[in-house]
Task: inverse folding
């Protein structure tokens, strides 16, 4: 069935302008792609990609290192643009976006060649004369479709992984963050990668849809569940793969034996960094009753103390929301929870004096929430932490798993064995103990979710493999004939029966199997040594 996606329009504006959520200032513009022209961008990349694919892995690794240096050379400039275009605090532009991608490039350069090299395959005992290996071929040209919340680190990582695997890339950044999206292509070009190997197509969802429908071999999509499902279906109907990194509703479980000050600080960061606009941000907290009062008190005090303001200031901890639409989603979810009986302990919508942009949502803490409230079921994607008190860790796990999402989860305890027991019971792609979501910045760790949170994995060796076709290459020295080839007779079946017992069976059955099978096995050996087919 063809997926029902937004119709592709061809009346797209020629220019896509970018405005800052801080003060509404126009930051610049990029050339917007007409959806009808996306295929030609893919075709252009397809001309360059075969040359890149032929480069030895060590050479591709050298380019990754150079790209890392290219980021370092424009670090402050990129950080400033990120903060102005997306609104995250200046420090987070370094810590959550730029520095992790420099480290990612180093990891790709160091670990990539080993992971992508041919791998010898061990053959079954009755095929020992054959030699086989797995070789990982690039897919060709792949598409990367990116969200606005981490407009640098998410697409940059996807593009770098695809390139290291030998692919060319067409990137579609979010229409809210086109300027920083464009800098990804520019950075690889600065690093000396062949011009045209990475192309950027700017525009709205129709451009993304055109990329999905183009001849790209695979789509790496990060975004909402709703759009992600449509993209996945559209890919499947064209027999192309997709990696879907979608939304989350991450739970934090605070055990009575947690290091409480640390859990409070971790909750503030995991819930409010990037103004809560993080797929793996903390969206639900389950705290054991014994420590609940102290925990809630600490989180409320901490949330009130976080500095909300101009993200360009070094000491701002929460900046504006990215758009009025996003602000409205957060506001309506909190209002709905309060109307249903929850208590808003702090936070709420706030104008930023002198900054006539989108405005902020001051870090909010909700208590008295119940599982059926919308705020406990839908993705908030804003700086709101709803806290539920539980009477046991079993109850906490049950509530945490009662969600359509399954991206990340965290367990806060000083008992490592307990954390591992709980981690195994949680439905999530990633479980962190005494921390939350940090591992997106460590690309040696796999990233991805279960349930509606997505399909496939980014980062680590799994992310590299997603950009390849696994080809089996097999060599047969051709000195003998396979014993399973024609002609068939009774001795073939009898010999195979005995072989199964001799090779894999119980020791006590082996002498009898050898006696029974000796004749058929000898006939089989003679057949193998005979060259041509003969009755
Ligand atoms: P969207 O799903 O709205 O958009 C994501 C990207 O898809 C954008 O570039 C968008 O373009 C494009 N797009 C929109 N419609 C289509 C279509 N029909 N076909 C192809 N592409 C399309 O997500 P947001 O940008 O709002 O990002 C927020 C979401 O992303 C949240 O749900 C969040 O949880 C999730 N996310 C998941 C992550 C993970 O690792 N699991 C990480 C980060 C975010 P346009 O910009 O024009 O709308």
Result:
């Amino acid at each position: 069935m063809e997926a029902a996606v937004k119709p592709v329009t061809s009346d797209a504006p020629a220019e896509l302008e970018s405005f800052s959520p801080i003060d509404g200032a126009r930051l610049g513009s990029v050339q917007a792609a007409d959806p009808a022209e996306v295929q030609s961008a893919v075709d252009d990349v397809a001309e360059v990609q075969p040359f890149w694919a032929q480069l030895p892995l060590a050479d591709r690794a050298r380019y990754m290192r150079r790209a890392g240096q290219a980021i370092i050379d424009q670090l402050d400039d990129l950080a400033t643009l990120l903060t102005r275009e997306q609104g995250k605090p200046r420090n987070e532009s370094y810590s959550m976006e730029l520095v992790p991608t420099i480290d990612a490039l180093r990891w790709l350069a160091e670990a990539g060649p080993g992971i992508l090299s041919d791998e010898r395959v061990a053959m079954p005992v009755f095929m020992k004369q054959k030699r086989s290996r797995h070789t990982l071929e690039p897919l060709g040209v792949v598409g990367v479709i990116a969200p606005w919340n981490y407009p640098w680190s998410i697409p940059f990582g996807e593009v770098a992984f695809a390139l290291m695997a030998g692919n060319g890339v067409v990137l579609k950044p979010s229409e809210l963050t086109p300027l920083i999206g464009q800098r990804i292509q520019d950075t690889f070009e600065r690093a000396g990668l062949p011009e045209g190997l990475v192309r950027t197509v700017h525009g709205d969802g129709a451009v993304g849809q055109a990329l999905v429908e183009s001849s790209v071999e695979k789509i790496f999509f990060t975004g909402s569940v709703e759009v992600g499902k449509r993209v996945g279906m559209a890919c499947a109907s064209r027999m192309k793969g997709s990696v879907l990194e979608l939304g989350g509703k991450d739970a934090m479980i605070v055990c009575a034996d947690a290091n409480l000050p640390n859990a409070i600080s971790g909750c503030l960061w995991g819930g409010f960094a990037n103004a809560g606009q993080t797929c793996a941000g903390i969206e639900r907290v389950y705290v054991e009753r014994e420590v609940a009062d102290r925990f809630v008190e600490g989180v409320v005090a901490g949330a009130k103390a976080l500095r909300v303001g101009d993200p360009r200031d070094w000491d701002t901890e929460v900046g504006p929301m990215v758009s009025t639409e996003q602000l409205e989603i957060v506001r309506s979810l909190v209002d709905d929870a309060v109307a249903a009986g929850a208590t808003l302990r702090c936070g709420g919508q706030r104008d930023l004096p002198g900054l006539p942009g989108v405005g902020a949502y001051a870090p909010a803490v909700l208590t008295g929430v119940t599982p059926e409230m919308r705020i406990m079921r839908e993705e908030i994607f804003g700086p709101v932490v709803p806290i539920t008190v539980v009477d046991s860790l079993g109850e906490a796990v049950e509530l945490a798993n009662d969600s359509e999402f399954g991206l990340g989860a965290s367990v806060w305890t000083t008992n490592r064995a307990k954390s591992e027991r709980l981690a195994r019971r949680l439905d999530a792609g990633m479980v962190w103990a005494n921390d939350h979501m940090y591992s997106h910045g460590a690309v040696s760790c796999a990233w991805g979710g279960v349930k509606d949170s997505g399909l496939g994995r980014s980062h680590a060796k799994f992310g590299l493999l997603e950009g390849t076709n696994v080809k089996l290459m097999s060599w047969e020295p051709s000195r003998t004939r396979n014993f399973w080839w024609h002609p068939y007779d009774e001795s073939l079946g009898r010999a195979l029966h005995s072989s199964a017992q001799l090779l894999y069976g119980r020791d006590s059955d082996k002498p009898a199997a050898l006696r029974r099978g000796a004749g058929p096995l000898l006939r089989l050996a003679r057949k193998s040594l005979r060259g041509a087919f003969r009755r």
Q: What stands out?
A: The chain is about 45% helix and 20% strand. Residues 5-6, 145-150, 154, 172, 174-176, 204-205, 208-209, 212, 222-224, 227, 230-231, 245-248, 279, 379, 381, 407, 449, 454 surround NDP (CB under 6 Å). The domain at 34-246+461-471 is CATH 3.40.605.10 (Aldehyde Dehydrogenase; Chain A, domain 1). The chain has three domains: 34-246+461-471, 250-442, 490-529.
